[in-house]
Amino acid sequence: MTADIQWNETVDEKGHATREFRITRQGKRDITGALWLPDSKGQDNTLMCFGHGASGTRYQAPISYLAGRFVSEQRVPVLSLDGPVHGLRKVGDGARGAFTPEFQRDECLDDMIDDWACALAQVQALPEVGVGKLAYFGLSMGSIFGIPLVASRDDVIVATLGLFGVQPHFPHGEAFLDAALKIDCPLLFLMQLEDEIFDRDGYLKVFDTFSSKDKRMHANPGLHPEIPAEEIDFAFDFLTSHINGTATRRIVNPLAE
């Protein structure tokens, strides 16, 4: 299928130069998002990908903050997509009110995987990016779509997910667990202990299902959006270490007797 992409040079909410885009395809919905490019290409041919929460857009915190760091400190290009009813393709309130009926659709997850596949093909065709490995960061709705996305690909080398659990009668619940079982890349999973949307058992059910040998959960007090700032910086370091190949994990056993 032919896809056409239109670019718009602008700046994000942190003042970083970015290239917004709209991809049009016959018979399918448009895809919108943003691409950040470093001044020069780094040695690690990896594209950093971001998914946002249901109340946000391609620039939702902490995406612009992290994008600026990846571009300036690591020379890693960054891609962020708007959700299916968000941002430049806003429907209704462009937030949770619009996302709820979208999430009920049987094709909701598959359509977003298709959006990502198309956007990645368009962006990786650029000489400034190229075809290489992927890294992924997505919390809340960014995990709702990120878990199936990461599971569908064999080029994701590291991911940060979280603010998500599977509970009884949750839409697509078995699909999420089936997808989580297929994920075996190094993984950081963030949890809020007083999350008002996802309960602790739901979090643990997803985390326990991941097949990653290198997986860790960081749990903090607070409601759904109240992740401590240091966790975001830890996520940057975690992702970066796997992108540039410096990751190490030493387990002292026994730690004490």
Q: What features would you describe in this structure?
A:
This protein is of the alpha/beta class and 257 residues long. The protein has one domain (3-243): 3-Layer(aba) Sandwich (Rossmann fold), CATH 3.40.50.1820. 33% of the residues lie in helices and 24% in strands. The chain is built from 7 helices and 9 strands; from the N terminus they run ββββαβααβαβαβαβα. The protein has helices at residues 63-74, 96-104, 108-124, 141-151, 173-182, 200-209, 229-243, and strands at residues 3-11, 17-25, 28-36, 46-51, 78-81, 133-138, 156-162, 187-192, 215-220. The protein has a 9-stranded mixed β-sheet, sandwiched between helices. Helix 1 (63-74) packs parallel to helix 7, helix 3 (108-124) packs across helix 4 (141-151) and helix 4 (141-151) packs across helix 5 (173-182). The relative contact order is 0.12. The mean pLDDT is 95.
Which CATH class applies here?
A: Alpha Beta
- Cα radius of gyration in angstroms: 18 Å
**Number of strand segments:** 9
Weakly predicted, low-confidence segments: none
CATH superfamily descriptor: Alpha/Beta hydrolase fold, catalytic domain
- The coarse silhouette is globular
Name the strands of the widest sheet in spatial order. Answer: 1-2-3-5-4-6-7-8-9
Fill in the CATH topology. Answer: Rossmann fold
List SSEs in N-to-C order.
EEEEHEHHEHEHEHEH
The CATH architecture classification is 3-Layer(aba) Sandwich
Distance between the termini: 63 Å
Characterize the biggest β-sheet: 9 strands, mixed
Helical content class: 25-40%
Query: What's the mean pLDDT score?
Result: 95
Taken as a percent bin, the fraction of beta residues is 15-25%
